[in-house]
Amino acid sequence: MAWTSVCCQYDGTFAGFLTCVFDCYANREEPVEFRTPDDLCCSLYPLRTVVSDPERAGRVYRSLPKLGREGRRLAVRGFLTCLPDKELWLWRLLRLGYARGPGFTQDLTDPTVDKVRKAVLQLNSEAHKYTGFVRFSLLDGILAGEIEPKNQVLPLLRPHFSGRYPQERFVLCDRTHREALFHQPGRWAIVPVEEFHLGRPGEEELAFRAMWRQFYDTIAIRERENPRCRMTHMPKRYWAMMTEFREDWDSALPELPRRTAP
Amino acid sequence: MELMDKLNILADAAKYDAACTSSGLDRAGRPGTIGSTTFAGCCHTFSADGRCVSLLKVLMTNVCVYDCQYCVNRRSNDPPRAAFTPRELCELTMGFYRRNYIEGLFLSSAVLVSPDYTTERMIETLRLLREEYRFGGYIHAKAIPGADPLLTRRLGLLADRLSVNIELPSAKSLSLLAPDKKKEAILAPMGQIRDGIAASRQELRVYRHAPRFAPAGQSTQMIVGATGESDRQILSLTQGLYDKYRLKRVFYSAYIPSVSGPDLPAPQGFQPPLLREHRLYQADWLLRYYHFRAEELLDEERPDLDPRMDPKCTWALRHLEFFPVEVNRADYEALLRVPGVGVRSARRILTARRVGPLTFEGLKRLGVVLKRAQYFLTCSGRAPRGLKISQDGLLRHLIALEAPALAQPMPEQLSLFDPPPAGPAG
Lengths: 262, 426
Known about the structure:
heterodimer, A: 8 strands, B: 2 domains
């Protein structure tokens, strides 16, 4: 008998999603839609409200190795991507993986594997770009930076920056997802933040910014100018946060549209 | 002199060095130090000419005793001159590195007093950075031809990558434009670095804490278009360098007339050969990743690369007997030779076809560029439907594919507010 189609409502966390997976398997229901409490639209399908439960989520999480190393990576990283309806794609990926075993990730032409793999590829490449494009400001001995990524890249950036600056205290704020990575020697945390403002830069900070801008302008060879090539490698959406393109250092960045309160 | 002015002068003098990569070495950060390197390297920004900026690329000094005709820093030229002290350069590097502006330092130098003296100053800078500032990021240093081999060795123990510029593609051009540099003097340190790297690898196998000599390998660069060498000579030289000197990279730099000299092309109206440089890089990739040999790409009858399409297409058109390649059976080497199939998509084909036979639809998902590859592939013995094409039709199609990118000037963006073109009234 076919599974009943339902609409799952959950809290938007990974644990919540895994609980949905558990409940759907337990009740033999097929989710055709996932929503968070913020979504305003109603659904034509019966609504299942799932409260995230660490125990059930843990059972699903511990079963992920059944998908193989690559399958597990796709499932976990897939949740950080900005793929539209990512929960649905991940649900399909999990069904496929449980049914076919670890080898299923080799089937690169399968629509589900292809979709999730490409989304994860995009996440990885955005994270890699940000390892270079993040700019820190030294404010009162703390390095502070802001980014506006499409995907949730902070968990991927964390090992890179913690490894690179083991002795530094730094903060990296993700303005799109409203969370921030805090690091001090030996400890780190990624926590949600409501407001984040960079303080006023000091004399030394301003001097370094000026020197960097100077260096950036000097290093280009005029006879080879190629704005299109530059934009291919570094799309303009990254520019707003980068020292070399900012002049108005004293004014803050434009506010993002506020998320509606639940 | 202010630090800002020095930076200005010495970055300006270094900008013609093509190499700005930070790749080839994975080194995790350790507690108590600052900095790490990643194998793939990392670009921190792209300058207005579209080149990756990964390292703080500066000269130690631009005061030079040599008089190479093509070089801005030559003795007989009169630009503003400056020199960093080791301490200034360290402070600058650390300040930039902490703010994540750069991946490390690229340190080159004009020859001040003598090659030995210059190298000693560079060593002093790098020693300060590594030992006092505990810097673990990437360092690319230029070995100065003519310096004492022991000094070059010390430089290599502090840096991650070393490079010696071969400058020009033949000994004849070298003696014409850079009379103070000899081919032998350039190749000697290259050989020394190669042997040093090999010995260091051997020692590391025995003893894991053995000192690492230039662990990210060595590279070189040459100027293209200042002298009359053909692409064939350049590519053969490149291949020789990869084979004999185990280089990681050979960089090409399209000649840009920044100074004038009797033996140089006239600067008036000279266009830097950017397209030629691009084709050379494409051919260079074929040598390094696609198992091509220079002899296959160019021969005596056709000594230059075709500017209209990439070297792989050119090769494919001359070897139509090799095609079509059957996607579901061909080995990796054969797949790599197909235009439109790259290293990644070839690997994906190998993985995906273990599950089931591939179709053209599937190939598109794998990232194969079908608009090029479709002429050279079959899937389970079948060519794409509706594809019938003659041999010179193929040439025209492939040229047309690249034409938009090569067109000058760039087409303008369409605007909503332009007057609509006159047409028959509906």
